[in-house]
Amino acid sequence: MSSLQVYGPFADAGFDDMVRNFLRPLREPRGEAAAPIKLDVVEKNDAFVVRAEVPGVNKEDIHVTIDGNQVTIAAEVKRESEQKEGERILRSERYFGSVYRSFVLPVEIDQETSQAKYEGGVLELTLPKRPAVVGRKLAIK
To answer: What is the pTM of this model?
Structure first.
């Protein structure tokens, strides 16, 4: 005999998450996580080119670290408030604090020849691939 199953179009767990998060604010309350750093990664024959959006940050406050094939971009957005006598802030929605993004590339990066450029709120990294180490055959004596 065949068994009957009840079809539930809303039984999918994704639907429950969508309903639960519908009224959740896009941005967390002040002092919590900011929007992540958005980036594009393009692979060329000899290098990777990474373009990361880091608007409103001084280039001195951006730090890039490379460890093998892992790249980390960290930035600190500083609040520069100049409140004058007789003024009061009614609403402040600009984020301040630290953000970072870490990702892994498929091959190791040559740290010595890597380059970074920051212009117009976009950080561009040129990350040359480290040449593959060719194994050598050991001679047995």
So the answer is: 0.64
| Side-by-side strand order, sheet with 70-77 | 62-67, 70-77, 97-104
Tell me if 124 sits within 8 A of 51, measured CB to CB. yes
Domain ranges of the chain: 34-82+94-128
Q: What is the pLDDT of residues 20-33, one digit of tens each?
A: 655 555 544 444 44
- Please choose, from the candidates 73, 55, 67, 56, the residue with its C-alpha nearest in 3D space to the C-alpha of residue 116: 73
Mean pLDDT of the chain: 80
Q: Which CATH architecture has domain 34-82+94-128?
A: Sandwich (2.60)
